């Protein structure tokens, strides 16, 4: 009887031990095969500092350049005449009385010379004054034309303009070619003060001639008095 109880006890104890071994083995197996959770590392992006409004504006320094005017102003010290002449040209004021090729004794008050005097394109613009021209511009012009024809024989007239004006005054213009095939333009006018002005250009008409002539301003005391 006691022997049977002992066997039962051993059997129970053995079953308990066997169960504990099975449970222990299961826990050990589960712990060894369980997946390991990897640590997730989030990359850190370093952003540049926020741009300010000042850093977005580019500062550009533009040097200040002075462009010389294309023309200069000439004012005669004796006669009431002002005019423009091209920058780079030079002038002189002889002031001497000479017999001109148009047959009149006049005073040469100003000569303007273009640059590059040795080149073919060299030009001159002269201003003469006749202090006693008479009052008949047409007669004065006809006399001058005859004298030019004698000086440059044969004279080829390329333009004869009796409707020209200088500073608002009636004028006569004569364009011609000399025997040596050079060209010349002569403009005559007589102001209400009975002063004759003669303008001579030793070339054909161009932009410089137009500016020179159109800029001429002659102040007439007699004309100012008449218009009052």
TrEMBL record:
This is PsbP C-terminal domain-containing protein.
